[in-house]
Amino acid sequence: MNQFVLQHGKSAELLLFPHILEVGIRKNGAIQLNAFPATVTQCLRIYYIMDGRFEWLVDQQPYIFYPGDAALILPGTPFGSDNGVLEIGSFSWIHLNIQQLDNGHLQPGAWSGLSESESAALGKILSLNGSPVISKCPEIGKILRCIHTELFGNEVGYQASINHQVDELLIQIGRKMTRQSHSARDFPKSFMKLEAALRQDLAHQWTVEEMAALVGMGTTLFNERVKSYSGFSPINYLINIRISEAIKLLKRPEITVTDIALDTGFYSSQHFSTTFKKLTGYRPSEFRKNHLRNK
Q1: pTM higher than 0.70 for the full model?
Q2: I need a surface site. Which of 6, 16, 217, 243 has the fewest CB within 10 A?
Q3: CA distance 23 to 21
Q4: Helices (H), 138-280
Q5: Any idea of the CA torsion for 242, 243, 247, 248, to the nearest 10 degrees?
Q6: 108 with 47, same domain?
Q7: pLDDT at 292
């Protein structure tokens, strides 16, 4: 399905669903600046990563989301990305107008088919969740796709079907939270260590063979695993890490663009500038100027 955004009060598809404030899909083919600023709303926001790798801030804390992961953003929680940067990839989302009780617990409204006790238990789980990251939960993606299909299909019984799907979405999130260990991600630790190693020495001209060796894999399996987890080839995965690190360094005016280029592994400032513009739409100097102007 192509990208879209439906908003309650603006989109006829949501006329019968006052509890669904927004639903959509975004497919981002280039790194965009000032495209995903941190915002605070009083609704429950759920984002599902279809492909790519996203670095988002939730309540001022940084988290990395990979394909199959979801972000659960509670009402009143700041959510966005550092400097509004939106990386390459695709994600879908839904914003729900959900009741917040005096004790802070959430509770589905009258539209829900859950019993009172089920609603209370589920609302407590959602409210007391210690991490906004729901790791490797493809069920969330499937449910969101079903909601999209029903909204655009407008077939008989679609209102009841969508409300049922929203209930199922909350149930699957609640179940995943009760099973999930927040101390570790399903993304293999070896790959987390790989990214840490790459960031520590981005100036090195890493080859796929060297990266594969760091995690004890052959190049064919390594290529498959990295593509599966991140949506990128190993080289493009590395380039995205280099660009994300360069964006952080460009915010420090005392470091020259040439030094940033070499420190993050580009052959020259021209190579850096060309790649940076291709992925962000800006030259490094333009990005730095915009950042300093907006500070």
Answers
A1: yes
A2: 16
A3: 7
A4: 138-153, 158-179, 189-200, 208-214, 219-230, 234-250, 257-263, 269-280
A5: -20
A6: yes
A7: 66
